[in-house]
Amino acid sequence: MSVGSRASIERVRGRGLTGRQAQLFDQLVDLFLAEGFADFTLDDLAGRLRCSKSTLYALASSKEQLAVAVVKYFFRRAAGRVEQRTSQADGPLERVGAYLSAVARELRPASARFYQDLAAFPPALEVYGRNTRIAAARVRSLVDEGVRSGAFRQVHAAFVGEIVSTAMVAIQRGEISERTGLRDAEAYDELATMLLHGISAPE
């Protein structure tokens, strides 16, 4: 795939979506996560979503730009829900666990085909990579909070964040499943358990 002008993507991002447009993005996210996106044409998508091509062109001016816009929408929607669940947890240790569990929950519907298409399309892969870096920074901030409060032992928060980031990428690429036989949800459980036992302060 190649991406032309970024104008339509920026236009969608810069304005509030109508209810119908938000509904279409939700449907596109579900479809792409389940089946990938590389093989779809705009005609295919219009048929699956029961809308006109002009409706899709209002979201993005090409299929390639639409794929990037949908991936951005997915991560933006997921981030909001992850933060909501994290804010409901009491205490630094619980917030780290809640954050990782919420990330796992949001990514769980993604199919192997979705990740294959993501890996083969650099503009969308960059969105994924950028959000992984944001997630790593968020983990670092949560660990920093726990260290300052005395809930965690004195650990190097940036290093912990990088380890978590590397593990998250490996899980979502299927590498952990291939090497260990763990399903993604199980791998996230193991990651959370290992991290939380490693950083919690001794009683």
UniProtKB/TrEMBL annotation:
Recorded superkingdom: Bacteria
Q: What region holds the HTH tetR-type domain?
A: 18-78
Q: Name one GO molecular function term.
A: DNA-binding transcription factor activity
Q: Name one Pfam family in it.
A: TetR_N
User: Does the record bear Mitochondrion in its keywords?
Assistant: no
InterPro entries named in the record:
Homeodomain-like_sf, HTH-type_TetR-like_transc_reg, HTH_TetR, Tet_transcr_reg_TetR-rel_C_sf
DNA-binding region, as residue ranges, is located at 41-60
Keywords attached to this entry: DNA-binding, Transcription, Transcription regulation
This chain's protein is named TetR family transcriptional regulator
